[in-house]
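Deliverable D4.2, example record:
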Amino acid sequence: MNGAELITQERKRQIEKEGFDAEHDRQNTNQELALAACYYALPYFVEYPRHQISVHCIPGFKAGVVISPLLFFPSTWSDCLAKRDNKTRIQQLVAAGALIAAEIDRIQSLEESN
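Output generated by the structure prediction step:
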């Protein structure tokens, strides 16, 4: 199965098994889906120390400040984000792709309703 097929399969699983459908995704109004995708896609070697990243482009943070990406998520996301460490690198990237697809769908749904 190629990458696009794996991402499609994962998105289907998120909807059917986890209940993360369009209605659920609409509740994430602060870019949480995109941020979670970034977190899942982030290579381990840029994390220092574990679960922290050096911030260079987030408004309000001085360049080079090290913060935890978990600060950007509500506490209800902690279990979901913790699953990242139990996944293989390919599984992490597939989850990131599925989260990006969910965010695209969420944005398109908002645009269509306007």
